[in-house]
Write a structure and sequence with these properties.
Chain A is α+β, with helices and mostly antiparallel strands. In chain A, 32% of the residues lie in helices and 24% in strands. Chain A has 2 domains: 1-175, Uridine Diphospho-n-acetylenolpyruvylglucosamine Reductase, domain 3 (2-Layer Sandwich), CATH 3.30.465.10; 178-286, 2-Layer Sandwich (Enolase-like, domain 1). Chain A has 11 helices and 14 strands. In chain B, strands 2-1-5-3-4 form a 5-stranded mixed sheet, sandwiched between helices. Classes of the chains: A alpha+beta (301), B alpha+beta (160).
Chain lengths: 301, 160
């Protein structure tokens, strides 16, 4: 690994000043589970690495207030998966975080890092899109907020400026009852990237949203307001047509994990599974019953 | 290149080192501290052979910089037992013949030890889940799972 300088600033302002001073030579380190791999492969050759884990003024791991839940940039997946607020409010996000990498990875990897790495297959992106997540970004001009849907520009590319830091992700607390579920396909159970991933939400008005990962250069969100997908009693063929129309913007690649054609076929299958699980959870919550278990377990089609 | 002075606790012993910021924890453990039980295999966080415990949590030491563990407690496979006496988990791996080529075993033992601290009486499925970040290229998983269940005092016939 090529040598670099290491800085561990104590405040966001100090970190921003370091990033400003070093410009393109500086890179941000949070959990490092993607970044250190890129350092090892020589894809990143920074002059200085700015470790943000020492920042004392970052938001806490999880805070709730003002109609949203805020997740601090250095909170690791393992802790977030256990957090009662996230488990209660955003179970599909918890399902997505609980399959990231491995136990060892989840003990280091951050949600903010997963977003900033901007992989098309980022496990948390579909759920964050479904929940209209915003990123809180600190820079020289103070703080700004940006929806995730605008933040990720392409594989590995984001709208983050050279002297900016993502300090938190904010998720609005759903105003209406919402059923959500996450489904993911991998070649093996542990330590693999998603071949396809889907997060689905269904609300009481019949609005269905699908966040799709590894299906295009950027994770994307599509919405069905016709109500046909949310209606599990609607005729199957009509639902299939509606689903195919919804996911028509998928543009997956062929790579070592799967061919383009297989991804498209599995996107349909995983979407159906996630949709069914989300609709069932919505129904269960409206009946006052709690359901547990993810869409990626059990009901193999 | 700057070097950084770090102070950490490794297997219960306070250690002070001066290291380059770019050096992974794995490399420093092996090359500076001569703790070669921790193995380098994939070096990209996929195989778990380099698993160590940092402040009570299993992590991939290949994906951490040594400067990141300053002030922290690191336990390697050498820290699980003591000289002349293996830990319960290490003994269980030996008793159950859970070791084939052996390269993944230090990481397996560290992960398994960590698993039992969180879940003292795991099911076979929980053991498989708990070890899913550790790959064995010999494919010796069944005996490894049996060894972990034995160390936990669980019936080995739960394994398939």
């Amino acid at each position: 690994m090529q040598a670099f300088d290491y800085a561990r600033p104590a405040t966001t302002a100090e970190a921003v000043a370091l990033l400003t001073r070093h410009g393109d030579q500086a890179r941000i380190l949070a959990g490092g589970t993607d970044f250190v791999v890129r350092l090892r492969h020589g894809i990143e050759t920074p002059g200085v690495v700015v470790d943000i884990k020492g920042l004392t003024d970052l938001p806490a791991d999880v805070t709730e207030g003002g109609g949203s839940v805020r997740i601090g940039a250095t909170a690791v997946m393992a802790d977030l998966c256990r957090h009662p607020v996230l488990r209660a409010r955003f179970p599909a996000l918890v399902e997505a975080m609980s399959v990231v990498g491995s136990i060892q990875i989840r003990n280091r990897a951050t949600l903010a890092g997963n977003v900033c790495h901007a992989s098309p297959a980022a496990d948390t992106a579909p759920a964050l899109l479904v929940h209209d997540a915003r990123l809180v970004i600190a820079g020289t001009g103070g703080e700004r907020r940006m929806p995730l849907s605008e933040f990720v520009l392409g594989p590995g590319r984001t709208a983050l400026g050279t002297a900016e830091i993502v300090t938190a992700a904010e998720l609005p607390v759903p105003a209406r009852p919402l059923g959500t579920a996450f489904a993911r396909m991998t070649r093996r159970r542990g330590v693999d990237l998603a071949t396809i991933s889907v997060c689905c939400s269904v609300d009481a008005d019949g609005v269905t949203r699908l966040g799709c990962g590894a299906a295009a250069p950027v994770p994307f969100l599509v919405t069905d307001i016709s109500g046909i997908l949310a209606d599990v009693n609607a005729p199957g063929p009509a639902r299939d047509v509606a689903l195919d129309r919804l996911i028509a913007q998928a543009r997956p690649i062929s790579d070592v994990r799967a061919s383009r054609e297989y991804r498209l076929a599995m996107l349909r299958v995983l979407s159906r599974r996630a949709l069914l699980a989300a609709a069932q959870r919505l129904a269960a919550s409206q009946n006052g019953k709690a359901r547990t278990g993810g869409a990626d377990r059990g009901d193999r089609a | 290149m700057t070097t950084t002075r770090i102070e950490l606790t490794v297997n219960g012993t306070a250690v002070t080192l001066t290291v380059g910021a770019h050096r992974p924890l794995l490399e420093v453990l092996r090359d500076e501290l001569n703790l070669t039980g921790t193995k380098e295999c994939c070096a990209v966080g996929e195989c778990g052979a380099c698993t160590v415990i940092v402040d009570g949590r299993p992590v991939n030491s290949c994906l951490m910089l040594a400067v990141e563990v300053s002030g922290r407690h690191v336990t390697t496979v050498e820290g699980l037992g003591c000289a002349g006496r293996m830990s319960r988990m290490q003994q269980a791996f030996l008793d159950r013949g859970a070791v084939q080529c052996g390269f993944c075993i230090p990481g397996m033992v560290v992960s398994a030890t960590s698993l039992l601290e969180a879940e003292p009486h795991p099911s076979a499925e929980q053991v498989r889940e708990g070890l899913s970040g550790n790959l064995c290229r010999c494919g010796g998983y069944n005996r490894i799972v049996a060894a972990v269940l034995a160390a936990a005092g669980e019936a080995p016939e739960e394994t398939r």
